[in-house]
Each structure stands twice: as structure tokens, then as C-alpha cells.
Amino acid sequence: MAQDPQHSAGAEPDLYRDTWVRYLGYANEVGESFRALVPKALVWATYGVATAYVTADAADKGRKAAQANADDPGRTADITVAVVDTFVWQALASVAIPGFTINRLCAASLYLMGRVTRWPLPVRKWATTAIGLSAIPVIITPIDRWVLL
Fold it and tell me: pTM score, two decimals?
């Protein structure tokens, strides 16, 4: 898991960045991997889980900014920056870019298997799902780092 620029080494572990909770942000990638096999409503529900994670992390960073700047009369700007920065970073790094990447990878693999194999459709769909699931751990760190740029 890549660390965001606001996270300092030696600090208390961040629930949303340094624990298993971080993987809730990738629920939609799992949904995208299974898109060929499950109803679209279920795929969209995984986006709800990922968006809830992003929103919770942004709210947590806003709360922490409010606590850190309790005596600052201009703290509203600091809180707003913390919330917006976190929400945008997480939305891109956890939901939008990885979701698009897995969606396109799965669509391409299903298409290509249809063109170059004689496998029955159910086998191709399960293979596509396996490809999508196996790609998730590979894409996480590069996307996190790219979004930090």
C-alpha cells in the first residue's frame, strides 16, 4: 500500500491507509472482475462500498484536521483542503482509475479469448474473472504512486 503525502512515518497507523480497511476501496475492482458473471446491480453495489470507504477516509482526515487546528480561527480552510485532497486522491487511486483499468482488462481478455480460443463462453467468463482478480494486486501500488504525482 502506498502512503499518501500527509502520512508521516512513525505516526499511529491510519485506519484507512495502513490496515485491511484500505482494501474496501478496491471493492469495485472485485466487482469489475466479476462483471461477466454477476448482475450489473451487484457490480454497482461494489462501487457503493468503495465510495463509502473514500467518503469515510475523507471525513476522518477532516476530523483530524479540525482537531489539529482547534485553536486556529482560519481552520475551515485547512479542514476543507484535508477533506477535498483526501476525497480526490482516494477517488482516483482507489475507485476511478483501478476500476477503469480492471474493466478494460477484463473486457479485452474476454474479447480476445473469444477470438483466439474455442473455449465455451462460461469458461471464458471465469478466465476473465481470474485475470481481473489476479491483476488487482499488481495495479494497486503503481496507480497509488501515479496519483501521488
Answer: 0.84
